[in-house]
Amino acid sequence: MTTIDPHERWKPHGRPDYAGLQSFGARPYTESVDDLDGVDVAIVGAPLDDLVSDLPGTRLGPRAIRIASNGFAGVHLDAGVDPFDALRVVDFGDAAVIPADPAASHAAIERIVGDVVDAGAIALVLGGDHSIAEPDIRACAERHGPLGLIHFDAHTDTGRELWGVERSHGTPMYRLVEQGHVAGERYAQVGLRGYWPGEEEFAWQDERGITALRMREVLDRGIADVLAEAIDAVGPGPAFASIDIDVLDPAFAPGTGTAEPGGMTSADLLWACRQLAAQLELVGADVVEVIPSAPLATTDITASVAAGIVHELLTGLALNRRY
Amino acid sequence: MTTIDPHERWKPHGRPDYAGLQSFGARPYTESVDDLDGVDVAIVGAPLDDLVSDLPGTRLGPRAIRIASNGFAGVHLDAGVDPFDALRVVDFGDAAVIPADPAASHAAIERIVGDVVDAGAIALVLGGDHSIAEPDIRACAERHGPLGLIHFDAHTDTGRELWGVERSHGTPMYRLVEQGHVAGERYAQVGLRGYWPGEEEFAWQDERGITALRMREVLDRGIADVLAEAIDAVGPGPAFASIDIDVLDPAFAPGTGTAEPGGMTSADLLWACRQLAAQLELVGADVVEVIPSAPLATTDITASVAAGIVHELLTGLALNRRY
Amino acid sequence: MTTIDPHERWKPHGRPDYAGLQSFGARPYTESVDDLDGVDVAIVGAPLDDLVSDLPGTRLGPRAIRIASNGFAGVHLDAGVDPFDALRVVDFGDAAVIPADPAASHAAIERIVGDVVDAGAIALVLGGDHSIAEPDIRACAERHGPLGLIHFDAHTDTGRELWGVERSHGTPMYRLVEQGHVAGERYAQVGLRGYWPGEEEFAWQDERGITALRMREVLDRGIADVLAEAIDAVGPGPAFASIDIDVLDPAFAPGTGTAEPGGMTSADLLWACRQLAAQLELVGADVVEVIPSAPLATTDITASVAAGIVHELLTGLALNRRY
Amino acid sequence: MTTIDPHERWKPHGRPDYAGLQSFGARPYTESVDDLDGVDVAIVGAPLDDLVSDLPGTRLGPRAIRIASNGFAGVHLDAGVDPFDALRVVDFGDAAVIPADPAASHAAIERIVGDVVDAGAIALVLGGDHSIAEPDIRACAERHGPLGLIHFDAHTDTGRELWGVERSHGTPMYRLVEQGHVAGERYAQVGLRGYWPGEEEFAWQDERGITALRMREVLDRGIADVLAEAIDAVGPGPAFASIDIDVLDPAFAPGTGTAEPGGMTSADLLWACRQLAAQLELVGADVVEVIPSAPLATTDITASVAAGIVHELLTGLALNRRY
Amino acid sequence: MTTIDPHERWKPHGRPDYAGLQSFGARPYTESVDDLDGVDVAIVGAPLDDLVSDLPGTRLGPRAIRIASNGFAGVHLDAGVDPFDALRVVDFGDAAVIPADPAASHAAIERIVGDVVDAGAIALVLGGDHSIAEPDIRACAERHGPLGLIHFDAHTDTGRELWGVERSHGTPMYRLVEQGHVAGERYAQVGLRGYWPGEEEFAWQDERGITALRMREVLDRGIADVLAEAIDAVGPGPAFASIDIDVLDPAFAPGTGTAEPGGMTSADLLWACRQLAAQLELVGADVVEVIPSAPLATTDITASVAAGIVHELLTGLALNRRY
Amino acid sequence: MTTIDPHERWKPHGRPDYAGLQSFGARPYTESVDDLDGVDVAIVGAPLDDLVSDLPGTRLGPRAIRIASNGFAGVHLDAGVDPFDALRVVDFGDAAVIPADPAASHAAIERIVGDVVDAGAIALVLGGDHSIAEPDIRACAERHGPLGLIHFDAHTDTGRELWGVERSHGTPMYRLVEQGHVAGERYAQVGLRGYWPGEEEFAWQDERGITALRMREVLDRGIADVLAEAIDAVGPGPAFASIDIDVLDPAFAPGTGTAEPGGMTSADLLWACRQLAAQLELVGADVVEVIPSAPLATTDITASVAAGIVHELLTGLALNRRY
Asked: Which of B125, D181, E125, E273 is the most exposed, fewest CB within 10 Å of its CB?
């Protein structure tokens, strides 16, 4: 048994945020599959940025999100549940990515998520660029069958290729649908805006029955209404949630590589994440495209809201009572 | 007489923002109690961060807020009043805090606020961590009797202790109520969210009759409705306003030590501060938990909105016409 | 012919954001008037900050906005039009400003904008402090006659002088109206807040028939309603749009010299810019007061939203079909 | 057994710098005393800044130094030894510090260092403000007898009190000598400069036989000559090395709270640390006063040189062959 | 009498660095000429950047240097003198500069320095861009006669004009020599490097008998030898020292507008400043071209070394015993 | 003809640093091979970071170096030559790199450098991670025959693989020697330090006759002596200079991905670059591993010294008189 519990040394008070082992939410940390026994949710890092088209830096995301995650613990003031009480959550460490070898890194991500799913747990994956959705969703789909997908993003990420490159942070959703791992008609996108992709991609989306909900609709109809439509589209059955941090307005998440002004507020996104986790049958989720943008001695608001998203997902899972 | 007027040297134009004595809002600066005669409001700094549980740095808050305060001067476009015209405001400098001696520093804060109140003026205190609310509110309550309290914050700050430490930035409100300086049934909290505190603290709050208004209600009902409820709860009689900058979403106030995503907008908070100062019988206020987060050559948005809060309080006081 | 097309070397994929010639939106770059033939819109930089009263740095704005502009290309998801497809847009480089010689720099700005207008194109000017509005609007008005003006800003910029200085970033609109280049009754301001200017300036504004729409109204009535009023005020006939980035809340645009908390969201402003460009008869526009505030290796959210504003203006122009 | 080996998952290549468990130098991580068996050196964090007189932030130092330590591994190019090969090194985590309770935190530091020494290992302590030298040296001295001390610093840290506070980052060396834990005549200071302390403190130093080597001497005589004198002064017998990062010029270590320009270069200090570890009989060492000053996505040069110092100490220990 | 003594409120310990009135070195602050009576040295700010050719921001220099100056107090470890004990030093505030009006600002600088000199004190001026040397040296020369000048800088600043502008940060020394305020044959430059100015300027320098000592000579001969030559050149009689912070390598002073790699170290420059102040007959000095480059919560190494330079000048003046 | 001359619009003064087309050193900019006719030196960007093992961001290097290059122009104060006068230098833009496709990007780099060499010009390549040395040196070697190589770096970059990846920023020099493009016995490394590579790599280096000069030797013998040895080793015949910015101490170049404390000073490296360019028969050079680390509104000291290195190389080439 190789699990380390960050609270052990600080009994009975619990670890201060800035001290001790920096696991997600100060959860027990392990790198051994044996320790996944009985675990409800395993946090996994996917530190990768080899497949981006703009600013790099998401390889540094998982570490930053873990550091930012310390403040999130206790009973959720609105939901009335403490997810760390309701669920057994561990930090399972990072996938064994290989610098400058994205194929090997994708394989490592698929392997570690597969281990989590094989152990009967839900994987919450900290990215990493959005290309990681391909291996992490595939690892889930190969074990649960084709998945429903709820996808928050400024962009659809359904390109066939980007700059002629097929495995990219702009293409995972196209590939997953075409591979049969995501069911098009159970796939909903929320927060789309800006100037990408183009007609060809949207035509393909229509063919596959994908529900594309633009940011304009969030602004006009409100998040509750739009989220209800997205949750309806995904419906019952195993589902995955993929949250690209750039769905937020850059004011709320400046640390990302393809920021698009005019996006969601943190309050809306955090609420939506809790709701979807409470209502869908999530088998996994990822939070991607976080680039640390602040000194360690300062609040990194992007990493902080990313950690908050994970915690709202956990809270929703705790409410869900399927576990 | 030791008052220095920063505008003197620049007559008739007034001092540029970046030049000359950096008093709050370019107000006359004095450290002598004698100069408080006839003053309506005295700005006081409480540069302290000895009692925080997370990121330090609020000891640097008062200086940063003063620097950021320069742009705020003139007739308020909505309120139609120039608070520096309607009220005699001075900058009374910082409490004589002692590095690494929080007890002595609290005593100094209580002393300086007491001097202001004794002189018949309202103290607006620039924090500092939220522990300063204990001495600054006590100084007011000892002279005005038990106070009503309106408290904007992501957290209730009503812990009995934090990490076993009783004097802390997480406990001032518990202590003030228990000490009889704040009347529980005249105490309203606005903006609560996240995962702290827990059942025990909320049970105590209910016992004491405290009104706890969550951020969720601000989002659902709007700030006007929630503020009205809070102002009703506080009601007539001497009152204090305590504004923890982390009530704002980190997008609006990244420079703070326990940021909690999903919070208020600056527009809502600024408006609320003016309203409450206009409607309540404020005897003092503090703005706390500001950590400078930007170079001097850049807009520090946290310090800037904190300065704006102070100015809206002043504007509300000017509207209040009780002075 | 001296135009350079940044896409040429990367055919057929187009230039990556971070590589190659950093023209606005990767548009063809030229400094020759001859190349303006047949051009619909020319982007022009006005790198100036000699006339500010607070933080300097806007001389670095045009370069930063160009760098941030790379992500904006393709069909607008809401508008269904690709402005670079619908319009012939070039980057015409920067005005030949002279360091520490604001008069010469203003002359250079007036000259370059005049060249654009003489070529029959619309000038979109990247500031620069707001003083540049005087030469750039004058250059348009001298060729199109007195203009309507829609002006987004926290401040009216209608001072007679600032610190006794008449040519300033706080006075351009007063001067343009008094010079007859802007028609007061066709001039609408949106987003005003804070404590400047005072009664004298507002009295003059009333005399000239200027429509002043405060931020309070945007918060209370919504942007759609307020924008409709502003567009009505400007009405038909040649018009100019002047967007001071400080109309945004500092959370959305921290990189500016006279930030005023409590402002607009990016989503509202971006939408408004597209609408006004689609509905008015714009002969030019400027986006001003942007100070780069982030490292090159990070998203500069201020420059990014400024680039987005330009792109929404272009999208609106493309919808406008007057070109 | 609760040790986690960060290299396990990445076999045979070893962990990339930015991924996986962020233990110091990717060493096995444990919080159990049982795992110290057979260990030569244990890295220990002392995340504390409650006792500073200037800028806070050193509570964030240990985490930052660990993150920066990743690049240091392999055979030292000059020394020809791989310290991780020659010595069994573990990361023993952080002392169980308590926020806002410096007495409890000092006790925790003394306890954890005591555990290391009891296990027969050398403790390398990552600060934290310099007050931690008191508990960490005391823990060693209580087990090894009065120690020799080599102390790199801009300041002597031999005040009797600072602002009337006796336990402070300005007083540890006075207290340790007076407590009998450091032998005055075996105590050498290197790098002193600036304006502190005063005559009283230097008179006391002379009485105690302390060797005070100013920065001026390093500049005039060279580091080799000055270091030889310091090593001579310490001589044989158990010794401790205390490295205040502010002995470096702020150009080399900007992230510190009481920076003093005109200091040492990294090259000199790194070399000196290796030499002293190779020549003295070190029973422990600390590296203190590091405040993270750069974003996670950037080289934090202060934390990086601090990590380098630790690695040179390890290299010197490996050369020392006493282990 | 309007002097405020920042130590008064903190008796007997003195003010902490981060608290209270931020005068230079916590010296008594006054804006009244009457308070200059009996003063040996008055610190004066010249917050100006209207006349730069590159990055702006030096208008923010004086405030940043004052903030950084707090750590400098006590007996100089090498010189054995406490300048604040030996000399009566006050902070006389900033010149009444006018935003966007460099001529008025220069007049204000000349006036305030003149007031200091008229009171029989030495003026130490905190810049501001190097153009301020023209009014501050002229104010001294008009009262003391033509001055010797020792000038540390990467550039000679002896252009006739820059971009056709005669009053500029690149021209003050040419103008002062031509105006007869600086005696060419008593004028020595130290630290020149890079690619400016050209043959014409150097020819003029030779004509005027100016001693130009390149950085190459500092590197080859050492600072002591080069400084001796410079001091010899200036010789007896009233003299001024002008220190452009860019004489330092950008590693030691990144916060400046025309940084030139390959420059001096802080240790050399600090030593030189003390020496020259001790040996020459200084009637004034300025430290210029400092742009704040770090958050308030961090060490600003440029402002810090600038404050150190002022303090070494004061220490040298104290040694000089002419006062 | 598609060359654009940035000075054209500003005649006769020349372009200010912050305005106009941001070509290297404000040189004429072209992307057409035809314009290379008669050119002595072409600046080429290689914006790539796909092959790093640590911090990414060097894809942003060329743009940052160009921005920083503006200050370098005129007659070199020590060398007495203006390289832009002596040599015809153009900025040939960036290689047509493809995001996330390092093989294609390497091919593009090889192609653009080949074009420069084919035109009879010297290529100065702005990196980019150090992997770019493989294609850029190969492009030169294929046209000039096996090259001598002078290589400044903290690391040898002669790994056979890194993490199992053969094309990497840690392997180019191994590959170039093995491919026969660099002659081992004419290859000198300067500045090595730290803990990488290991015995195997150094054994291979010895076999190939490579001269490895450690940083220790620069510190002990001085740069002049060490450089002379390196230049001797390279000797006559076509040669290439590869400058990894991490040869500098992180104080002088914090913006790099594998910083190693204890390195060279800027003054030494700048001098060495000029000397080697003056004495060797350079056919090309690259400056690599620069990550922008400062806001656009601030001096980026890493990019600035990188630009200075290029300019010293140009100055040395101008002195060389082989062109």
From this structure: D181
Give domain status of residue A99, yes or no: yes
AA identity, residue C148:
G
Beta carbons of A258 and A280 less than 8 angstroms apart: no
Contact status, residue B284 vs residue B323, Cβ threshold 8 Å: no
Q: Which of E144, E125, E132, E247 is nearest to E186 (CA)?
A: E144
What CATH number is given to the structural domain containing A150? 3.40.800.10
List, in sequence order, the alpha helices (H) in chain B.
Answer: 61-68, 83-86, 102-118, 133-144, 172-178, 199-208, 215-221, 223-234, 266-279, 301-320
Task: Determine how β-strand D122-127 pairs with β-strand D41-46.
Answer: parallel
Does some domain include residue D271?
A: yes
Residue B171 has φ and ψ, to the nearest 5°, of -125, -5
The answer to whether F260 touches F303, Cβ cutoff 8 Å, is no
| Structural contact between residues C163 and E98, judged by C-beta atoms closer than 8 angstroms | yes
What is this model's ipTM? 0.96
Instruction: State how far the alpha carbon of B119 is from the alpha carbons of B38, B139, B281, D223, in Å.
Output: 8, 12, 17, 60
F41 inside domain:
yes
Structure tokens belonging to residue E102: 């460099």
- Percentage of chain C exceeding pLDDT 90: 94
CA of F256: which chain C residue's CA is closest? Answer: C297
Quote the number of domains for chain E. Answer: 1
CA distance D130 to C240: 61
Mark out chain A residues that contact chain D at CB-CB < 8 A: 1-4, 8-10, 13, 16, 18-22, 29-31, 45, 47, 57, 59-60, 62-64, 67, 93-99, 291-297, 300
3-class DSSP state for residue D230? Answer: helix
DSSP string, E22-62: --GGG--B---GGGGTT-SEEEEEE---TT-SS---GGGHH
Angle between helices D301-320 and D61-68 (to 10 degrees): 70
**Structural domain that includes position F186:** 28-155+165-322
Which has the closest alpha carbon to E257: E151, E131, E133, E109?
A: E131
CA count, 13 A, side-chain hemisphere, B310: 35
Q: Per the structure block, which two tokens stand in for A224? A: 């509750």
pLDDT in tens, chain E (323 residues): 589 999 999 998 789 999 999 999 999 999 999 999 999 999 999 999 999 999 999 999 999 999 999 878 899 999 999 999 999 999 999 999 999 999 999 999 999 999 999 999 999 999 999 999 999 999 999 999 999 999 999 999 999 999 999 999 999 999 999 999 999 999 999 999 999 999 999 999 999 999 999 999 999 999 999 999 999 999 999 999 999 999 999 999 999 999 999 999 999 999 999 999 999 999 999 999 999 989 888 999 999 999 999 999 999 999 997 66
Residue C87 is assigned to a structural domain of this protein: yes
Residues of D in contact with F256 (CB under 8 A): 299
pLDDT of residue A322: 67
CB contact under 8 A, B249 and A249: no
Say whether D114 sits in a helix, a strand or coil: helix
Q: Residue D237 carries which DSSP code?
A: S
Q: What angle do CA A237, A242, A243 make, to 5 degrees?
A: 140
For residue B172 the two structure tokens come to 């001032």
Is-contact C57 E49, C-beta < 8 A? no
Which chain F residues are Cβ-neighbours of C63 within 8 angstroms? Answer: 18, 22, 67, 296
Task: Transcribe D116-158 into DSSP letters.
Answer: HHHTT-EEEEEESSGGGHHHHHHHHHHHH-SEEEEEE-SS---
3-state secondary structure of A209: coil
Q: What is the pTM of this model?
A: 0.98
> Which residue from B80, B82, B293, B241 is spatially nearest to C250, judged by alpha carbons?
B293
Contact residues, chain E, for D165 at CB < 8 Å? none
